[in-house]
Design brief:
about 60% helix; about 0% strand; mainly alpha
């Protein structure tokens, strides 16, 4: 299924996504804070007059190198760096990202806020900004999350992993859809733009999540026929059978809505049960009209009884 960005969709994206080229390496390099940049005029790597600050940079380098592979060791190194330079933002940023990776979004936000209070650009690297946006989203701070995703989306092509790039767009769309209509009147156009951009690369594990979310966004935007057409092109039973995590959802109750959409073509009775669970759990959610309409279409009509002649 080939979907492209329409002029309207392009209009709601903050800026055009840049080509990746060799910019991934440049993005990765921004993980190292300016005070530790090799060769800087006042670089701490070469400053023999500040051995404590040089040790700080060495510990910070260790923490960054082990961020993904060895979180415990990365945390210990970041804490040592923080002890050596408590007024620096970089160690707090690493500790924030480690907390986000561990699922503790409350602790992550506290660390992020401490780092940003010192350096407002501390989380400008795309991977760090994604962790910040995700932490806002998980804590229900949707205005802050949406603002952060808007800044992140144009940089998402700099992320190394295609699934992470798709995740950014999917999460941004879900946050936009969940934003209050009176505060974000163009939220659905924005969500559709993000989702359509995500469909441009079908080679990632989130492709069914993206397409099912696109069905919901189209329906919320009043484009029911287009939503039905997209759903008619989707066969996502395998996705539904593998207990999808759907961690991108702002409202976890919507998982049953997505399951219903995914199962319609192959298991109508299970799809009806999923819609019924969703409607029971979220009777007044924005997508309940979609669930009711789909449920009604799946529910067999009782035969009309004729009276005696």
């Amino acid at each position: 299924m080939a979907l492209v960005l329409t002029p309207l969709a392009l209009a709601v994206l903050p800026i055009a996504l840049p080509p990746r080229a060799d910019l991934v390496a440049a993005a990765a390099a921004t993980n190292r804070p300016a005070e530790c940049a090799t060769g800087a005029a006042e670089g701490l790597w070469t400053s023999a007059r500040s051995p404590a600050l040089r040790r700080y940079c060495l510990e910070l380098s260790r923490a960054l190198a082990r961020l993904s592979e060895d979180p415990a060791s990365a945390k210990a190194a970041a804490e040592r760096a923080e002890a050596l330079a408590p007024k620096r933002a970089a160690p707090k940023l690493i500790l924030a990202r480690l907390a986000a990776a561990a699922g503790d979004s409350k602790a992550a936000l506290a660390r992020f806020e401490a780092a940003l209070a010192i350096d407002p650009r501390a989380a400008d690297a795309p991977a760090a900004m994604h962790d910040l946006a995700s932490s806002y989203r998980r804590q229900g701070k949707l205005a802050e999350a949406l603002a952060t995703y808007r800044a992140l989306v144009p940089r998402s092509s700099l992320l190394r992993d295609r699934e992470q790039r798709a995740s950014v767009l999917l999460e941004a769309a879900q946050v936009a859809m969940s934003a209050p209509a009176d505060q974000e009147p163009r939220r659905l156009d924005e969500a559709l733009a993000y989702l359509r951009e995500a469909t441009r690369d079908p080679h990632h594990a989130l492709r069914d999540d993206v397409t099912l979310s696109l069905v919901v966004a189209l329906d919320l935007a009043g484009r029911h026929a287009r939503a039905d057409a997209v759903l008619g092109e989707v066969y996502a039973e395998a996705w539904a059978r593998h207990s999808p995590a759907a961690a991108y959802l702002v409202d976890r109750r919507e998982l049953d809505l997505l399951l219903g959409l995914a199962l319609e073509a192959s298991a109508a009775s299970e799809a009806r049960a999923a819609y019924e669970r969703y409607l029971a759990a979220a009777p007044s959610a924005p997508a309940t009209a979609l669930a009711r309409r789909r449920l009604a279409a799946l529910t067999p009509r009782s035969p009309t009884r004729r009276g005696p002649r």
